Task: inverse folding
């Protein structure tokens, strides 16, 4: 390990003894760890605060899309994917009422395999890959990377409130409660920084205080861990579509496969009168799964290790509170169906670290310069975040279809994938975080809508009294497509 310079030693003492730094980061999760490292590598002094440094155990945040892998490499953190038994992900396998279509990540969109001595490519690009893993193991590796940085000091403490100046609204730091090793009692602590970054996750303590939006939750993911489950397409994430809401299957270790079952609120087959969620999984979900997966699923269900997480939608917003920003899942969430959350987070860190670099903002106590950078961040991040956010919400609406028009769009989506070519490369490139163009998303979404209309009309082209009804129904399908996507488009356009 490199020796610390005199300046670094002085900064470390200020963090450890006086709890003062350039940046105070609340939350040592995906976003908090990554932004701490990015800023520390720029020479900033960083205090990282986390309620518990034990390895977390969550059922989401287990799939990193290729666009997130690329961002992780930009941050110099790709080694965090190693040594955790992570699984390479090549794309998706969509199973619609037993019919199957593989959707690999687009060819020639990955890193160049080999270059010549002059730097020119001599071999074609490879297919990009994502990674899936146990969430807690990945977080542990990120925290270990933070611990190795000379410019970061980590404290295990529970942040309770922000601290503001008495004469203006500038946030100066945070107040917390820390367990005293000598007394065993919790005692007040204070941490001060020129900039406070709050990234305390989906259950944020500070969201209500600083953001006007509140998360919308219409369903939960119930998670099971299957052991040695033989998946139809190894190294692919699986999306199971049928009469129930979607089911996700993806490997997170050599022997472990995650099953995530979406259960909408007030679902009759999951009501207490019907036997609850376990009865729904046993009676409705189990029979709909591929035959080879059913024994592992039944065994995991019998063992009773069932956990849940809310599927939240929170549109992005910017804050203009001097001295503080709220980011990560605390600021913006989307349905985890497409596994885009970590990809958005790491790309946000890449962009934010560029905008807050010492070359752009020499002094982080210059609140006007920071606020200008945050306004730029809010709009520049949308090339990717808008795609991921809208895609997640729109696809969930189609995949959890509960009326005739949505069912027609669901079928149209599957038939679109079956066409192959750009009908696969475009959508999966968007989902992977590789294509960062919202207009491409809108093109493919409405192409699916038009195909859905054509399928309805095509069923009655031979004539007969059903043709006018099919024509009316097809117009209703297009209207439903607009109803699905435009509210999410408008939410992304707001300040």
Result:
């Amino acid at each position: 390990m490199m020796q610390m310079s005199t300046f670094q030693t002085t900064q470390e003492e200020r963090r450890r003894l006086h709890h003062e730094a350039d940046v105070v980061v609340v939350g040592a999760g995906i976003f908090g760890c990554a932004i701490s490292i990015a800023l520390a590598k720029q020479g900033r002094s960083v205090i990282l605060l986390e309620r518990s440094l034990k390895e977390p155990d969550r059922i989401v945040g287990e799939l990193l899309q290729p666009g997130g892998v690329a961002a992780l490499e930009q941050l110099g953190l790709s080694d965090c994917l190693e040594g955790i038994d992570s699984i390479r992900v090549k794309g998706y396998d969509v199973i619609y009422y037993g019919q199957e279509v593989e959707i690999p990540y687009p060819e020639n969109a990955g890193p160049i395999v080999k270059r010549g001595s002059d730097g020119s490519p001599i071999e074609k690009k490879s297919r990009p890959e994502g990674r899936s893993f146990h969430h807690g193991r990945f977080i542990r590796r990120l925290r270990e990377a933070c611990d190795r940085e000379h410019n970061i000091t980590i404290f295990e403490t529970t942040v309770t409130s922000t601290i503001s100046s008495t004469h203006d609204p500038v946030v100066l730091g945070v107040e917390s409660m820390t367990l005293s090793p000598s007394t065993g009692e919790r005692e007040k602590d204070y941490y001060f920084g020129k900039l406070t970054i709050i990234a305390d996750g989906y259950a944020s303590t500070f969201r209500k205080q600083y953001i006007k939006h509140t998360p919308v939750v219409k369903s939960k993911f119930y998670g099971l861990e299957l052991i040695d489950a033989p998946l139809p397409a190894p190294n692919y994430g699986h999306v199971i579509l049928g009469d129930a809401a979607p089911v996700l299957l993806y490997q997170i270790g050599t022997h472990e496969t995650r099953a995530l079952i979406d259960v909408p609120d007030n679902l009759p087959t999951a009501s207490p009168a019907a036997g609850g969620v376990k009865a729904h999984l046993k009676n409705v979900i189990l029979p709909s799964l591929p035959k080879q997966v059913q024994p592992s699923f039944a065994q995991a269900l019998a063992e009773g290790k069932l956990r849940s997480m809310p599927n939240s939608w929170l549109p992005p917003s910017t804050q203009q509170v001097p001295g503080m920003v709220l980011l990560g899942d605390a600021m913006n969430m989307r349905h985890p169906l497409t596994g885009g959350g970590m990809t958005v987070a790491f790309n946000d860190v890449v962009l934010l670290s560029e905008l807050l670099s010492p070359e752009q903002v020499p002094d982080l106590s210059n609140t006007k310069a920071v606020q200008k950078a945050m306004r730029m961040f809010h709009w520049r991040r949308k090339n990717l975040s808008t795609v991921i956010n809208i895609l997640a919400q729109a696809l969930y609406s189609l995949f959890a279809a509960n009326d005739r028009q949505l069912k027609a769009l669901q079928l149209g989506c599957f038939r679109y994938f079956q066409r192959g070519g750009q009908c696969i490369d475009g959508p999966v490139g968007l989902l992977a975080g590789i294509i960062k163009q919202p207009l491409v998303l809108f093109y493919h979404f409405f192409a699916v809508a038009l195909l859905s209309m054509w399928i309805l009309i095509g069923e009655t082209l031979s004539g007969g009294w059903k043709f006018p009804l099919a024509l009316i129904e097809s117009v209703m399908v297009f209207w439903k497509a607009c109803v699905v996507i435009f509210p999410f488009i408008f939410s992304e356009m707001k300040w």
About this structure: The two ends are 45 Å apart (CA to CA).
